Amino acid sequence: MVNYKIDWSLLKLCLINGLRNLPATITLTLMAVAISLCIGMFTALARYYKTPVISQILTIFLTVLKGTPVMLILLITSLIYNNNIGKIIEYFNLNIKPAEVNLIALGVFVLSLCLLSSSTEAFRGALLSIDKIQFEAGYSVGLTTTQLLRKIVIPQVIPASMPMLMNNLVASFKASALVYTIGIVEVMYGSLQACAKYYSYLEGYIAAAIIFWVLSVLMSFFGGWASNAVRIEKVKSERAQGVGKRVEPCAY
Amino acid sequence: MNDFLSVSRMITAFPKLLASLSVTFEIVAIAILVGLFLGIFIAIIRMFRIPVLNQVMTVYISFMRGTPLIIQLYLVYYGLPMLVYNLFGVDINGWNKLFFIITAYALNEAAFLGEIIRGAILAVPELQTEAGYSTGMTYFQTFIHVVFPQAIRIAIPSFSTDLIGLFQGTSLAFLLGAVDVIGKARIVGNNSGHVLDTYVDAAIIFIVISVLLEFIFHKIQKRGDVVYGKLQN
Question: B172, A71: Cβ pair inside 8 Å?
Answer without folding.
Answer: yes
